[in-house]
Structure formats: C-alpha cells, structure tokens
Amino acid sequence: MQKLSRKSSTQLPHQGDPPPTSDGRISGEAGSTSAAIVSAKPFCTIPLGLGNKLILESRFWRFNLLSIWLYIFAGYTANEWMYLLASAFFVASLLGLILPFLQLWDVEAICSMPDEVLVSECADVKIALRRTMQLGMISAILPLQSVRMSIQLLRRSASNDHEHVVPPDPVLIDHIYGEFWFEFPTHALRRGVYYLKGVELLSSFPLGLAWWSRTVSLKKDDAEPKITVLPLVIPISGNFLFKIGGVNSLMGISSASSVVTTQSTSVRGVREFKNGDSLRHIHWASTARVGKLLVREFESEVLPVFDLFLDLTANWRDQEQFELAVLLFHSLAHLGYGMGSLPQLTLHPALESATVASLMSDLPQIPTSVGWISQVLARVEPITLSDLPREERQVSDLSPALVGPVERPILCIQPSHEGLMKSSPTRGNHIVYPIKLCLVDRASISDVSSTSVLEKKLSASSEATVIAVLHSETDIEAL
Predict the structure, then answer these.
(1) Does residue 337 share a domain with residue 280?
(2) What is the pTM of this model?
(3) Which domain does 293 fall in, by range?
(4) pLDDT digit string (tens) for 399-439?
(5) Is the bond preceding 349 in cis, omega lying within 30 degrees of 0?
(6) Helix or strand or coil: residue 10?
(7) Nearest Cα to 138, choosing from 93, 104, 102, 97?
C-alpha cells in the first residue's frame, strides 16, 4: 500500500495486479493515479437526477456553433465535403455528450474506513471502484479511464445539518479494469461525526467536449458510512482532589464503581463491640480494664468522588472555548473512572430533550460507561438559548439527576468572559477565553426551576467554588 503524500490520494493495487513501478504507476492494465486536478470551468450545470449532472463548458457551444456555420456554408456553396465535415462535427458533439455518461453509468463503489479516530488525527478512507457491466457489450468495449474521483465528506453541525469539510485532494484515474482500490488520507479532523455522502466521478472521455458528473452513494452495513471523532484524554495529575470531599459509605455510589472507602492503620480510639466487628480488632487491654468488649476504631481513608455537569446553553464565547470545556469534561470522566467511581454525566438541555436527542440520534446502544461518555461528548455542540423551545428552557427535567447522594459534589465547567491576548507563530495575536472549573454543592441546585435560576446559582460565589481557571491543555494536565 503506497501513499504519495498526506494531501494526495493513492491508488492501491488489487490483489493479483502487477506491482507499482518506482514512479508510482501500475504496470499492465491496472492503470495509475495522479494528484492532478481536472480544470473545468462550467458554462452551465444541468442536474438530471439520480446523482447525475451535465456540465457544459463554453468550448462545447463554440464547437456546435462551428458545426452550424459549416452546415450553412456547405448549403451556400453546395460543397458535399463541407456537408460531410459538418455532419462529422455534429456526430462528435453527440458522442461527446453520450459516451462519458455511458462510461460512468455502470460504476459502483464500496468503502472501508475507521469507525472512530481521535481529535487532530487523520482518517484513511479507502474506496473501491468496479464495473457492474450492466450495459453488456457496450461496457466491455467502452473502458473506464480518464476519470476524476473525489469524496464528499460532511460534518454534522449543531443544527443537525451537514457542513462541508475540506475534502482530500481528488485523484485522476488513467484506466481501470475489474476492481481497484484508492486511498484518501483526510486532513486533521476536529471533534464530531462525519458522514461520507458519496463518491463523485467526473469524466469527459473521450472527446472532452462535455463533462458528466455522477455521485455514487456508499453504504456500510446498510447505513451511511461515518467516522466519529472522539475528544482527547489529558492525563490529570489530580492536585485539586483535596478540595473534594470523599464518601465514607457505598450508599448511592454507582453500580459501575468499585469500593471507594479503605481502612487505614491510624487508630482513632476504641468503642464498644458490635455484631459484625472483627474479633482481631478487639483491644484486649481496654477490655480487661473496663470489663466489656471494646474494639479499635480506625480512621477512614476515602477517595474523592464527583459527578459532572455541562451546560450547553451557557454563554460560550467561541468554539475554541467550548472545545476546551469538552476536553476537560472528558478528562475528568476518565480520572473518576480510573479512581474507581464513574462520574454521572448531566447535560443541559437533558439528553432526553428534543434538541440534544437530535444530536444523539446515532448514539451507539452501549451500556453506560466511560466509552458511552466519550460517544456523547463527541456529539455535543454549543446551543444558543434563543434557539431552544420554551419548554426546554426549563430545567425541571434535571431534578432527578441533580438530586442524588449529597456526598457526591458536582463539578461544573463554566465559560469565562475575560479574554486573554496571546500570540503564536501560526495564528498571530488572538484572544483566548478560558474556562472555570467549579465545585457545586448538589443540595444548592437541586430545586432549580429555570435556566436563569440555574445560571445565577452557578455564578454565585456562595453556591459555587472556583477550583481553577484553565486556558489550555497544559493547565488541564497540571490540574
């Protein structure tokens, strides 16, 4: 498997085909590729349905005008050779319209690509083209060659529409017989869900008078092929954990968590023996002195546990600030999971709301786990409060999630509105808006009834304690 460059597409030899030569060409009948792009400046584009478009350049019309002029001139001069030349021009124009269409009509495509990648990684999209031979002898006679192929990669946006992504560079196919594979390394992808809508084939072979474009749809397991770009995980040092209280009891801890309470060797005192106490903890000296069984009472060593809350409707200043919040959210979830207690994920609007449910329409049906949290965070987007329906502006649906074990505080991530000017060689001077990690007492926000009340409580210093203000990934790592 060869790669010409990260920005160019590569043709992969099918098993049994001759190996590529040193200059990247495939010897024999397999054909070759090039990073060259066909330059076509359309005079007019005519959509014809089923993914087909006819693109006519100005030379097509000039060619036909020349044919008409030759025909008129032949009639004026009564020259049979001019009649014959005009007829040849008309036939060439007709063949220039039909042959590219017939070449692309019986082509089908299949794809292979990863289901998941991480942010800033590149995905290798592999496409196979093959002839279906639906036109019989015409397909056998007319070769598939001089075809420009490109892929249509779209990213789903917050409004559940598809926004265009800078696609990989197209590839120019010299000729193909049978099945042949091509590889398209994408550019670095940001967090989200990307759909491969289809493969666009463009050809004007053999006369170059008219261009035909055909979009071949792709299916993978009877669904549109997609790539889920998951957020990164930054290893957090955990220096902030001393500010979070621990849990001395397993009551209310998620079933996915393990024991968070351990016994230390530090003796706090003695107490009277109770049923269930271990006999090896009996303090015999005190028992003999008092005349009743006394046992040692140890200090409890607890691990801090927490839940996570993210308000998608908060006043996020830009996309970069929101992406930093998602990165912190994801890293904290992995930190809690690594300590033995999976944090509970709470969003506003709730996952069950119509606005967020549309973003989660393709969420994999997997048990609640750290992998499920990664899939959810790959799909969240900042939501403008004015775009929410009136009924979703109420947060009463969050009450069951916010009312939980009071021993488990909530870590809330809020946007900061105080920008900081920074300079970098690639971006120059730019403003960075940090985020705030806040510790919120669950009992103080369990009775909220509207978004405005929730925002006031989260911003009040008496209700939320700011643990840290973070500007970059380095701050998250040192947290």
Answers:
(1) no
(2) 0.71
(3) 261-302
(4) 444 544 555 788 888 898 888 888 878 778 888 899 999 88
(5) yes
(6) strand
(7) 102
